Amino acid sequence: MLNWLFDKKKKEQADLSELGMDLHSHLIPGIDDGVETIEDSLIMLRKMYDLGYRRIFTTPHVMWDCYRNTPQVIREGINDVRVAAVNAGIDMDINAAAEYFIDEHFVELLNTGGELLTLPGNRLLVELPYSTKLMNTSETLFQIVAKGYRPVLAHPERYTYFYQDPSIFKKLCDQGCELQVNVLSLGNYYGENVHKMADYLLSNGLITYVGTDAHKPAHLDLINRTDKKGWLKKYKFQNMKLMEE
């Protein structure tokens, strides 16, 4: 009898179709700290479809101390996900790149011409340490540009050592680096300070892309409860343009 009352309280499904594509997630099972089973991969794909995504580039960690993922491992994994998605009737364009931790292995690959898995436009998704600042961050990102890639720095709002002088982000952008904020940083999932930095970067026009950085189905459920409409109206992102390249 009271079903109508509870139905009214249900929140409207988030619509992130304006972004068009997600360029940061961890959907290949068993190769990093993302999903563990192909069943969870399918759950996440369905949730992403419901959010409005039609094209994804999932990005497993390549962090040589923890996740020694090679292009072959990632390609085999994404092929398994694609096959499972087709069998499950999920109509999405499913691709893979990688999220490269800037460590000695990455620098060696960059210097020796080793194969690196890229996003459209020869873009490289890279991440930094969370707690300890690299002494040569600017130099490494400039080196990436010099090698013909365009660096996309993952979740810059989470690198707390830059908080004292956030002007570093403008300098990185001026060097040719693009910045990707996590959707959940626009809420309080990572804490109030991360949220404030994400808002600062967005308000100053420094963020180019928005990514889910989803590691598990629960992350997508939280995204669905994040205040999306405000920032989608306020800010313009380039995910769709990247999608068209």
Automatic annotation (TrEMBL):
It catalyses: O-phospho-L-tyrosyl-[protein] + H2O = L-tyrosyl-[protein] + phosphate. Its EC number is 3.1.3.48. Pfam families: CpsB_CapC. This is protein-tyrosine-phosphatase. The keyword Transferase does not apply. SUPFAM superfamilies: PHP domain-like. Belongs to the metallo-dependent hydrolases superfamily. CpsB/CapC family. Keywords: Hydrolase. It comes from the Bacteria.
